[in-house]
Amino acid sequence: MNLLMVDDEVIAIQGILDSVDWDRMSFDRIFTANNYTQAINIVLQEKVDILLCDIEMPSGSGIDLVEWVKSYDENIVCVFLTCHGEFSFASSALKLHCFDYILKPVPTDDLEEVLLGAKGEVDKRKKDKNYQEYGKLYVNQMHDQEPEESHSTIVASVKEYISKHIDQSFSVDDLAALVHLSPDYLTKIFKKECRITLNGYIIEQRMFLAKELLTTTDLSISSVSVKSGYGNYSYFSKAFKKFYGISPREMQQR
Q1: Are 218 and 225 in contact (CB under 8 A)?
Q2: In this structure, what are the phi and psi dihedrals at residue 146, rounded to the nearest 5 degrees?
């Protein structure tokens, strides 16, 4: 897996190169660029999986760069690293579906967690093809079965899929497509069978797994986040605290 860092301040890139534990990150190759044009040339010539870039640069901003990157290869995971905290910049990052938006100066530990999370997001996107193939297989199996399948069997199939793919990103719409039902109808029968909403069940299962990994393994919080189906480290931390009342780090320390 390859990383491209883009910043017009050479000293900023060198600071990251000198401080990050690259053995822990396990990137195959690390590319650097100091402007928009250099970055584009690298993306065109090399395989880039993760882009870490500043926003304000001469001859093309980081936002311009990410817009181009997304049009060239939507699977590249992009992270903004900038000293600008204005809402307009953060809003642009959200619209471009950036993985994260972090402010300089960022503690090395936090940057490493974000990079690990970005790697996990790359892996999850690579699994999308498997997800689609699973869906096609399930639909084909449905056609070979009886026309009317019981609610309990449908719910059991959905639960089994959630359990086997808990580390992946999926929605109620995705699950409904797998069992060839409308999202509203699947939600209705799931709530009737399990007395919990489908979304609530998914969150509950992710949280149960996250707690188990935090308390029984030596995995980093970022790795736990990915294995629990949360590509965004910050979102995972907020969701975990909302569910358990304490942060992942506090749970890990306990």
Answers
A1: no
A2: -65, 145
Residue 166 per-residue DSSP state: T
The phi and psi torsions of 53 (rounded to 5 degrees) equal -140, 150
The answer to whether 134 and 178 have CB atoms below 8 angstroms apart is: yes
pLDDT 10s digits, 188-242: 999 999 999 999 999 999 999 999 999 999 999 989 999 999 878 888 999 999 9
In the chain the beta strands, taken as DSSP E runs, fall at 2-6, 29-33, 50-53, 77-82, 100-103
CA distance readout (Å), 163 to 156, 187, 206, 211: 10, 17, 9, 15
Reading the block at residue 136, the tokens are 């096609």
pLDDT in tens, 77-126: 999 887 765 555 556 656 667 888 888 888 899 999 999 999 998 988 88
Q: For residues 37 and 53, what is the distance between their CA atoms, to the nearest angstrom?
A: 13
**Cα–Cα nearest to 214, from 248, 247, 163:** 248
Distances (CA, A) of 115 to 5, 70, 152: 11, 19, 41
